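Records of this kind hold a single protein each, on a pair of labelled lines. With that in mind, the following record should read easily:
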Amino acid sequence: MKATVDIPDQLYRQVKARAAMQGRAVRDVTIELYERWLADPANDSAADRAALADAWIERWEAIGREIAEKAVDPRSSVEILLADRR
């Protein structure tokens, strides 16, 4: 995908010069920086982390409710004991 990004002239010149000294294209440097930025969880906002945590907890609670509903045995304790003895 192509994208146009406005970068201050001085900053771009510095990036271009350093990339050239390393024999790299500015495009490659930019992609590397985007990948590093996305991989770093410290870049997630506190609100993003809180939303993920809330969703995670809600999913585990739903699983717990589902298990609890399936675990309910309508038989009395006596019926369960008698069935186990047979």
Q: What stands out?
A: The radius of gyration is 29 Å. The mean pLDDT is 89.
